[in-house]
Amino acid sequence: MKATINANGTEITVLSKVNEDDYISLTDIAKYKNRDDAFIVINNWMRLRDTIEFLGLWESFSNPDFKPIEFDRFRKESGYNAFTLSPQKWITSTNAIGITSKSGRYGGTFAHKDIAFEFASWISPFFALFWR
């Protein structure tokens, strides 16, 4: 099921799956900061050490198939200037379930509501409080 919420004038898509938690569009949230290059905002957030720590902790609590060795590699590499990380690379490498990402016209990056709230707080604490 697909729904939208309005946060300070920004429409944010929410996907609700039967018997599962809501997944919220990180792409829509990122448009609050940069309408034209939302994917760059997401990638910049994902390359931060604190983000990687948060994602790894969330996955270790929620995902029995999470790959901790690959997570450790990202954690060690984060902080270096040349380090980059996309949602697709994170998902493929660690078998993550907290983030989903699809390229193309009807694609986008969605995250479990716990992760989406963390991302929204990074974008703007003021913005994040509008839809909690």
Describe this structure in words.
By secondary structure, this protein is of the alpha+beta class. It has one domain. 47% of the residues lie in helices and 20% in strands. The protein has 7 helices and 5 strands, in the order βββαααααββαα. The protein has a 5-stranded antiparallel β-sheet with strand order 1-2-3-5-4. β1 and β2 form a beta hairpin. 31% of the residues are buried. The model has no long low-confidence stretch (mean pLDDT 90).
Topology (elements, then pairings):
Elements: E1 2-7, E2 10-16, E3 22-25, H1 26-30, H2 38-46, H3 49-62, H4 68-77, H5 87-94, E4 99-102, E5 108-112, H6 113-123, H7 125-129
Antiparallel strand pairs: 1-2, 2-3, 3-5, 4-5
Helix pairs in contact: 3-4
Number of domains: 1
Low-confidence stretches: none
Q: Mind summarizing the main beta sheet?
A: 5 strands, antiparallel
Tell me the number of strands: 5
Cα-to-Cα separation, first versus last residue: 20 Å
**Order of strands in the sheet with the most strands?**
1-2-3-5-4
**DSSP helix fraction:** 40-55%
Radius of gyration: 14 Å
Output mean pLDDT: 90
Count of helix runs: 7
Our estimate of the beta-strand percent is: 15-25%
Please tell me what the overall shape is.
globular
